[in-house]
Amino acid sequence: MEPVYDTVIAVARSLWAAEGLKFTVSGVENVPKTGGAVIAVNHTGYLDFTYAGLPAFLQGKRKVRFMAKKEVFDNKISGPIMRSLKHIPVDRGAGADSYRAAVEYLQRGELVGVYPEATISRSFEIKAFKSGAARMAQEAGVPIIPTVIWGAQRVWTKGHPKRLGRTNTPISIGVAEPVESTGDPAEVTLRLHQVMSEQLRTLQETYGPYPPGEYWVPARLGGGAPTLEEADQMDADEQAEKAAKRAAAKRDQQAG
């Protein structure tokens, strides 16, 4: 029993009901009922992790330990909650610690949630993957469970206002068949990317309608979102700007 996690789940489901969110979940049977597994999730919005645990909950009320950036744990409000839920902080300056913690969780039979894209996809397509999910699954000897969410970007995503009122937004979640983690991690990562890209298109085909020019609709479907290439450039520009600010702050500190 985990009273805090159970309470958070109950509160989340109440909030979803108040918002009128309409979930369609497929492939629940692909989540293992017991034992460790990496839950690989695409990243389109800030609340993805709250929805991504739903298939596991429907499969015997299993709980997912998500890897999340350290800043969330440093927050005085969200930090204590994240630690109580046994999520895993990721310090990008000391990634080995979070990686080791994730492997240990997996070896103990836990489900660990990972975003292989590492950041929100502004294009709402599947970005290039990091190899961490494949490497940790391989080291722990567990499968990877491809989990794709579609529609969550309409609730709250990068660069757009949050919509947390009663929006009646439909959200689709599809869990594909497990991807075995044996073999070259680069090849496993490529296979995972292919499976999740196919799953995304399957969900998109049954979603609709897609109003032309809408920000949450991919350019490929006639929407206003940037293309994958444009989004990658936006991310690169943002990272360069952040790096420049950090460098300037460091110079000011040294000068002072």
Descriptive tags:
single chain; about 260 residues; alpha/beta; Glycerol-3-phosphate (1)-acyltransferase; 2 domains; 7-stranded mixed beta sheet; 7 strands; about 15% strand; globular
Assembly state (oligomeric): single chain
What fraction, in percent, of the residue positions are helical?
A: 40-55%
Sheet with the most strands, sense and barrel status: 7 strands, mixed
Number of domains: 2
How far apart are the termini? 52 Å
| Rg on CA atoms, Å | 18 Å
Helix segment tally: 9
Strand content: 5-15%
Unreliable spans are none
CATH fold name of the largest domain, please?
A: Glycerol-3-phosphate (1)-acyltransferase
Question: Reading side by side through the largest sheet, how are the strands ordered?
Answer: 1-7-6-2-5-3-4
Structural class: alpha/beta
CATH superfamily of the largest domain: Glycerol-3-phosphate (1)-acyltransferase
The chain-level mean pLDDT equals 95
Q: Quick one: how many beta strands?
A: 7
Question: What spatial form do the alpha-carbon principal axes imply?
Answer: globular
| H and E string | HEEHHEHHEHEHEEHH
CATH C-level class of the largest domain is Alpha Beta
Question: Which architecture name of the largest domain does CATH use?
Answer: 3-Layer(aba) Sandwich
